[in-house]
Write a structure and sequence with these properties.
Blueprint: H1 2-24, H2 29-37, H3 56-69, H4 71-91, H5 94-105, E1 111-114, E2 130-134, E3 137-148, E4 155-161, E5 171-177, E6 183-185, E7 199-210, E8 214-215, H6 221-257, E9 259-260, E10 263-264, H7 269-297, H8 303-328, H9 339-348, H10 356-369
Length: 370
């Protein structure tokens, strides 16, 4: 049911706008509103907090289907679900859930995730943004970079250092309302792909955050970040799958229509082998993604499997999109065909939510600890 609903929405409403959104770097405000109406802005948020109350597999399916049409629109979906709703659902107290989850899940407000800094990217434990408790407020100072959804967001899940003497154990997490005085959002970055989603720097100068907005306890920040990224990696794996599937479908259709030497190029064994490899890799990645989602839904450890799914799916997406462009030949290199957009969009999936190199470290360390 969720696949049929999301595919129909993506095909009829998202896909016709995808090229224009990408070309003009235009935030898909109308599509975000429609996703909220369909219950997609809070897929896994319990119904009592205004969400759809679905499971992770349903969420992965939704992300894949939206990504087939427009990866940028999927970024907005992922940022709100995985990086804002998920940590509040998992670590928030009851007042925090009641206050923040309903507007996020209903699309009335949008969330973002402030973790990455100039010197804290893959080294997430090196966060330098500080939060000092003074009375009943934290005073926050620091800078964040590469923050997805920031230009349109209302709520930021912000990672700060509350204890300078401790590294990872000195990190904490705050729910920060972005209209708070001293909170500044920089301009939207010009990017290679996912260009209709915003990516901005954040600057915080003596921002007062109520102590009641501490998510979890002091020192829980690194744990919250890693658990949130586990969920996010499943979503990015699904996004990569959607991009790859779109590129494969276009290459398959083009190979049947393109005539060379008196026959469709699909009659050539070289093209057939490309298509076979593309399809096989997509299916392998999809099973890894579904398995990670299933483990999460059943309350079982999934850090390793989420990393595997994200690593495989992102690399498959880049492989498939590259082959799709090759099958299109010179046409694929032009903006008249969508495969160049899919290739540009696929590239980021090997970088955000942890690079492929970080995924390999997560996987290797999980085995070395066993």
């Amino acid at each position: 049911m969720i696949r049929d609903m999301c595919r129909d929405f993506a095909t009829s409403e998202v896909a016709p706008l995808a090229r224009e959104l990408d070309s003009n770097r235009r935030y898909p405000a109308h599509l975000v509103k429609r996703m909220a109406e369909l219950g997609l802005m809070g897929v896994c948020v319990p119904e009592e907090y205004g969400g759809a109350g679905m499971d992770t597999i349903s969420y992965a399916i939704a992300v894949e289907e939206i990504s087939r049409a427009c990866a940028s629109t999927a970024v907005v979906l992922i940022g709100n679900n995985s990086l804002a709703c998920s940590p509040i659902s998992s670590f928030g107290n009851e007042p925090q859930k009641k206050k923040y989850l309903p507007p996020l899940a209903k699309g009335e407000k949008l969330g973002c995730f402030g973790l990455t800094e100039p010197h804290a990217g893959s080294d997430a434990g090196n966060v330098q943004t500080t939060a000092k408790l003074e009375g009943d407020c934290y005073i926050v100072n620091g800078d964040k970079i590469f923050t997805s959804n920031a230009a349109e967001a209302h709520i930021c899940i912000l990672f700060v250092r509350t204890d300078r003497a401790r590294r990872r154990r000195g990190m904490s997490t705050l729910i920060v309302e972005m209209d708070t005085p001293g909170f500044t959002v920089g301009g939207n970055m010009e990017k290679l792909g996912v260009r209709a989603s915003s990516t901005c720097d954040l600057k915080l100068e003596n921002v007062k955050v109520p102590a009641e907005n501490l998510l979890g306890g002091e020192g829980d920040g690194y744990k919250i970040a890693m658990k949130t990224l586990d969920s996010g990696r499943i979503a990015i794996a699904a996004q990569a799958l959607g991009i790859a599937t779109a590129a494969f479908e276009k290459a398959l259709q083009f190979s049947k229509e393109r005539i060379q030497f008196g026959k469709p190029i699909s009659a050539n064994q070289a093209i057939q082998w490309m298509l076979a490899d593309m399809a096989t890799e997509i299916e392998a990645a999809r099973w890894l993604t579904c398995h990670a989602a299933w483990l999460k839904d059943h309350g079982r450890p999934c850090s390793r499997e989420a990393a595997m799914a994200k690593l495989k799916s992102s690399e498959v997406s880049n492989f498939v999109c590259n082959k799709a462009l090759q099958i299109h030949g010179g046409y694929g290199y032009t903006e008249d065909y969508h495969v160049e957009r899919h290739l540009r969009d696929a590239r980021i999936t090997e970088i955000y939510e942890g690079t492929s190199e970080i995924q390999r470290l997560v996987i290797a360390h999980s085995y070395l600890r066993d």
